[in-house]
Amino acid sequence: MEPKETATPLSVRTAIFPVAGLGTRFLPATKATPKELLPVLDRPLIQFAIDEARAAGIERMIFVSHPTKSAIERYVTHDADLDAQLCAKGKHELAQRLKDSALDTKQIDVRFVMQDEPLGLGHAVLCAADDALPGPVAVVLPDDLILGEIGCLSEMIEAYQKGGAGHMVATMQVEQDAVKSYGILSVTGRDENVLWADGMVEKPEPADAPSRQAVVGRYVLDGSIFDDLRDQEPGAGGEIQLTDAISRATPRVGLSGFRFSGQRYDCGSKEGMLRAILAYAGASPEFREVLSEHKASLFAAE
């Protein structure tokens, strides 16, 4: 499917963060700590997602959470009491760091809505419908950590503003035997980093996959996605699947993939989290000695 002739899209002003999941793959660590607050060294996963959205100029951030995960709300907003305690102990630099990482509700509209039941990613996005600003919306999955000089969401929004597709998904090329773990884009053409598509196939067998372009956790979606999700029948696992609603709307609004420049880490898995920690540490001179020691010990063990 070639790009549609459309008017210049409205600005992407809303970002939705689905954070209601239980994080069962990280139990027992996530028994009391939400998986989104698990640290990549000293920086929680959700902080990377917030900073990425903030850099992209997002005006309203909607966190679709669960009643048992109140720690997320405490983390993302400024804690005046903690700030006062740190300042009273003379730790002004640390207090400022915490203030800088928190969301300033005078500059960004922060909202929390609850997803009481695990009814799928599509349902989580639909929970934010009443709070989203008019126009297209971004969806950011904090589990998918994407590290790069330019934030993935900033890159996507810039490409999206050029028009042509109502729905845009972040994609990366994976090995042939890995396609069965992803939604795979059916690619019909390419324009630099934008891949035009006529649909998606959810977790195909390698022999049946239309491409090796896997969809990962960043989306810029036409505002009509909410109406489509309201009408969407449950799919795999009896859940409302976001990819099903996107695929169904493709003939009407268009679909594209975006090949981002950063490196993606699947921090919903232990292996991916470890890779992210090592990569993040490797980029800081502070940890080079520790990593060198670890590398030496591994060679010695062999």
From TrEMBL:
This is UTP--glucose-1-phosphate uridylyltransferase. It comes from the Bacteria. Residues 20-278 form the Nucleotidyl transferase domain. GO terms for molecular function: UTP:glucose-1-phosphate uridylyltransferase activity. It comes from Puniceibacterium antarcticum. Signal peptide: none annotated. Belongs to the UDPGP type 2 family. Keywords: Nucleotidyltransferase, Transferase. The keyword Nucleotide-binding does not apply. It catalyses: alpha-D-glucose 1-phosphate + UTP + H(+) = UDP-alpha-D-glucose + diphosphate. Pfam families: NTP_transferase. PANTHER family: UTP--GLUCOSE-1-PHOSPHATE URIDYLYLTRANSFERASE. Its EC number is 2.7.7.9. One of its GO terms (biological process) is UDP-alpha-D-glucose metabolic process.
